[in-house]
Amino acid sequence: MHMPERDFDSIYNDYSRLVYWAAYRVLSDRELTEDVTQNVFITVLKNMDTAAKLPDAQLKGWLYRVSTNAALDMKRRMGHEVLSDEPVGAEVADNSATPEDEVLRSQAAEAVRGALAAIDETYREPLMMYYYSDMSITEISEALSVSEGTVKSRMSRGRKLLAKHLRAKGIDYE
């Protein structure tokens, strides 16, 4: 199957969320993640000849790896673990929600982030890729170099661990 070549704008529009969340998963800091995201798209621009011709699954896997590696490099340069107190999504809060709704949503997001941080990377990574980077099971399988069955198994176990951590915090998770 021949894929039409993409331009930079279409790649950015289609994959900027994936790049952002892949980097955020490593850094947990909005400003640093934005810097990494910008650097990744500079890399895309420098490699447009190749990127424009890749099939979607390969492009997603490549972008995920480049984003994760760039974030890890930044983390190493920083010399320490970088954590943020700012809730994910705070910069795009729904203005129509009541302050009470915002507090509840923020607390729920914080609880989920805490629970995700508490589970092993083996189970956390595929969940983050699936829910935050909108990657399919096949794409996650390719990016992690494991079988689709392994991805499904890790996601199932990760969800159970996540639910256990949330229940331990008094949050009913179905």
Distance between the termini: 40 Å
The total beta strand count reads: 0
Overall CATH class of the largest domain:
Mainly Alpha
The share of residues in extended strands comes to under 5%
Report on the biggest sheet.
none
The CATH architecture designation of the largest domain is Orthogonal Bundle
**CATH structural fold name of the largest domain:** Rna Polymerase Sigma Factor, Chain: A
Number of domains: 2
Number of helical stretches of at least 4 residues: 8
Choose one word for the global shape.
Answer: globular
Task: Tell me the radius of gyration.
Answer: 17 Å
What does this structure look like?
- It is a single chain.
- The protein is an all-alpha fold.
- The protein contains eight helices and no strands.
- The protein is about 70% helix and about 0% strand.
- The model is unreliable at about 80-95 (pLDDT under 50).
Give the gist of this structure:
This protein is an all-alpha fold and about 170 residues long. The chain is built from eight helices and no strands.
Topology of helices and strands:
Blueprint: H1 8-27, H2 30-46, H3 48-51, H4 56-78, H5 99-118, H6 121-131, H7 137-144, H8 148-168
